[in-house]
Amino acid sequence: MNPEILIPVRSHGRQVELCAQAFGDPADPAILLIHGASASMLWWEEELCDQLAAGGRYVIRFDNRDTGRSTYCPAGRPDYAHSDLVADAVAVLDAFGIGRAHVVGRSMAGGTALALAVDHPDRVATVTFVTTTTGEVPMGHAAFPPEPDYSDEEKVVDYLVSAMAAYSGGSPHFDPEVTRELVVRDLARGGPAAATLTNHYLIDFDAPRNGGFGDIAVPALVVQGEVDPVFTPPHGDALVEAIPDARLLVLPATGHDVPPPTWPLFVPALLEHTS
Fold first, then answer.
1. What is the DSSP letter of 29?
2. Which pLDDT does position 142 carry in this prediction?
3. 5-273, superfamily in CATH?
4. Per-domain boundaries in the chain
5. Rounded CA gap, 193 and 177, in Å?
6. How do the pLDDT tens digits run along the chain, 275 residues long?
7. Is the entire prediction scored with pTM above 0.90?
8. Catalytic residue among 84, 88, 186, 228
9. Which of 263, 37, 41 lies closest to 167, judged by CA?
10. What is the 3-state secondary structure (H, E, C) of the chain?
11. Cβ–Cβ under 8 Å, residues 21 and 91
12. Catalytic annotation on 38?
């Protein structure tokens, strides 16, 4: 594991910084892990990255804007669009000297992975969509807790643990203590919780610009949680139907996450897909 680095990016006349971290040998094929709304790179667990690196991959994870150690905007006032998050992912690849990567987009970042595949096809070797959607299937329902007082860190921690429990869909894989420890580390490492938990939902989704799922021309893997309460199994089916020659991996008894008990299935499948 390499230390975290800050990558300067010029965006709309101002300087932003993206925090990123690499695992493994730079000579190996690169996997770029992109997480979804409100999630820093810590939610791609270090142990998961280590397992992928041990399989002969150079693994890169990074903090999207308004998460982790990357640049923050004031809560409720993001000054960027989805296309900027796509450009940020390209900037991360550039900073590590990577021409083409195996791109993995999770939840909201499924849209980022799609945009990379069709707007920057020369940078993408394969694409993997994890617990995400085409946007054409109705969303499911999860019993989320009420929004917390963002000035009270203990209440924010409780809120996030409860939200992750809801996202798990009642999965036996959900571990509240492990989740609480991760939430505490994430909050200590990041900026204002009010920005992290709101800004991504306010941006303009203006990408991709050169096509859709049917225009993906690289191998695609769809990873679907069997009990995902938000992007339910029909979302995974719709992705496989929309993407030419896509393959489906269903994670049994799994919600809107990729918990450690699923790694013996997920890691080999991703290594095979990116081989």
1. P
2. 84
3. Alpha/Beta hydrolase fold, catalytic domain (3.40.50.1820)
4. 5-273
5. 20
6. 689 999 999 988 889 999 999 999 999 999 999 999 999 999 999 999 999 999 999 999 999 999 999 999 999 999 999 999 999 999 999 999 999 999 999 999 999 999 999 999 999 999 999 999 999 999 998 888 899 999 999 999 999 999 999 999 999 999 999 999 999 999 999 999 999 999 999 999 999 999 999 999 999 999 999 999 999 999 999 999 999 999 999 999 999 999 999 999 999 999 999 99
7. yes
8. 228
9. 37
10. CCCCEEEEEEECCEEEEEEEEEECCCCCCEEEEECCCCCCHHHCCHHHHHHHHHCCCEEEEECCCCCCCCCCCCCCCCCCCHHHHHHHHHHHHHHCCCCCEEEEEECCHHHHHHHHHHHCHHHEEEEEEECCCCCCCCCCCCCCCCCCCCCCHHHHHHHHHHHHHHHCCCCCCCCHHHHHHHHHHHHHHCCCHHHHCCHHHHCCCCCCCCCCHHHCCCCEEEEEECCCCCCCHHHHHHHHHHCCCCEEEEECCCCCCCCHHHHHHHHHHHHHHCC
11. no
12. no
Burial of residue 8 (CB within 10 Å: 0-12, 13-18, 19+) is exposed
> Catalytic residue at 107?
yes
| Cα distance between residue 123 and residue 74, in whole Å | 32
Q: Identify the active-site residue in 35, 102, 200, 256.
A: 256
The tokens describing 257, both together, are: 């996450």
Asked if 258 contacts 269 with a C-beta cutoff of 8 angstroms, the reply is no
Residue 162 is a catalytic residue: no
Radius of gyration of the chain (CA): 17
123: helix, coil or strand? helix
Which entry of 38, 40, 83, 107 is annotated as an active-site residue?
107
Q: In the prediction, which pLDDT does 2 show? A: 86
